Amino acid sequence: MSNALCMRLLRFSLVGALGIVVQLGAISVLVARIDYLPATALAVECAILHNFMWHRRFTWSERTQTGIRNFLFRLVRFHTSNGLVSLVGNLLLMRLLVGNLKLPVFSANLACISICFVANFLASDRWVFRR
């Protein structure tokens, strides 16, 4: 693996770690007020928006293009790839882990995030933020 790819993976991981804090913080607040599945969806969306902004400015900053059109184009791509993987992956896995296996919401959510990591990195690097 090249040094550039290692650095990008490290940056992706740092942003992802912050996104985990955002997601877990949001789910902790939301699950006290609404059912765990809608809480999961809203928490994932918070993390998706957070991660997109940081990936754009930090992880793939040299590939960022200016203008609202480019911003919206990449935001739609990010939601289509990372958003879809994260949202569908989290909801399906949460249903399995919490709904069927009765794992705690917080632990199950951490497992879901970890499982979706690789697919999200590849989609971002190869499609969302491609040159």
What does this protein structure show overall?
With 131 residues, the chain is mainly alpha-helical. The chain contains four helices and no strands. The chain has helices spanning 3-30, 36-59, 68-100, 105-128. The radius of gyration is 15 Å and the shape is globular. The mean pLDDT is 91.
List the helices and strands and how they pair.
Blueprint: H1 3-30, H2 36-59, H3 68-100, H4 105-128
Helix pairs in contact: 1-2, 1-4, 2-3, 3-4
Q: Count every helix, treating DSSP H or I runs of 4 or more residues as helices.
A: 4
Describe the sheet with the most strands. Answer: none
Category from helices, strands and their pairing = mainly alpha
Strand content: under 5%
What is the overall pLDDT average? 91
Oligomer: single chain
In the predicted model, the low-confidence regions spanning at least 5 consecutive residues are none
Q: Give a count of the beta strands, DSSP E runs of length 2 or more.
A: 0
Helix proportion range: over 70%
Shape: globular
What string gives the helices and strands in order? HHHH
For the terminal residues, how far apart are their CA atoms? 19 Å
Radius of gyration: 15 Å
